[in-house]
Amino acid sequence: MRVHTPDPDVTRHAVNGVDLACLAWGDAGPLVVLVHGFPDTARTWDYVGPALASAGFRAVAPYTRGIAPSTLPADGDYASDTLGRDIIGLIDALGEERAHIVGHDFGASAAYSAAGLHPERLHSLTTVAIPHPASIVPTLGKLWGVRHFFTHRLPGAAARFARDDYAQIRVLYERWSPGFAWPDSELEAAKNAYSAPGCCAAALAYYAFVSPRVPDGQRKRIGVRSLVVGGTTDGVATAADFERSRARFTGDLRVEMLPGGHFLHREHPEPFVALLAEFLRG
């Protein structure tokens, strides 16, 4: 049986009813908040964070609510707008008025919400692997690609997900980033976090808040300077999906397709960091 080992190299901040554990790189420069997705942790940024610090930024990556070592929310709320408010609260807790926000997967959905709810708090918005949710057109192919949206809601989902040392994590990584040979070390951080009491159930509970109804924070068009990044071999989203996002923005927007699948920032981090750093410098 796997036993969760807490990451000692974290800072902690009380935000929006939860205690967010964060990784941090750099202690000066403009703040960049890096928000992870599923099935993942803040360690997904352990190449990007140091690179941004070297480029003159202060990078902070929270473990999102419910993902160990962050605490479980008492009300079980994992809605995108709530996650967006967590980001804004973290900016406050870090003593800043504004920040660059970078989000991947569920973190991208949270970032879209933050930009819609409080655009005045963002220097810029960067989203990775997820087109703007209000621009997504359902198709049979997409429904099959996101079938986990339904299976993760079924009774006993957490116990099934934990079987065989969380073998489902590899299944999803390989499905969403086809053709990439994932070493076991890339999956270890997620397995370690999900083995903490309540964490796996919390991670799957995020899917209970996914709905065809676009949340309030994602209904307004985004006027913040933005970068939307997709992977050329993503197992679900296509270049057309990302291009369709343009209709949801009114400000300066770049849509870029880079080598890699859903986890392109891990598969080919060098071109991703080069693009991101150039964009953040403005």
Question: What does this protein structure show overall?
Answer:
37% of the residues lie in helices and 17% in strands. α7 packs across α8 (184-194). The N and C termini lie far apart (48 Å). β5, α3 (106-117) and β6 (122-128) form a beta-alpha-beta unit. It has an 8-stranded mixed β-sheet, with helices on both faces. The model has no long low-confidence stretch (mean pLDDT 93). The protein is α/β, with parallel strands linked by helices and 282 residues long. It contains 12 helices and 8 strands. The chain has one domain (11-281): 3-Layer(aba) Sandwich (Rossmann fold), CATH 3.40.50.
Instruction: Outline the biggest β-sheet.
Output: 8 strands, mixed
C-alpha geometry: globular
CATH class: Alpha Beta
How many domains make up the 3D coordinates?
1
The CATH architecture would be 3-Layer(aba) Sandwich
Could you tell me the strand content as a percent range?
Answer: 15-25%
Q: What structural class results from the helix and strand content?
A: alpha/beta
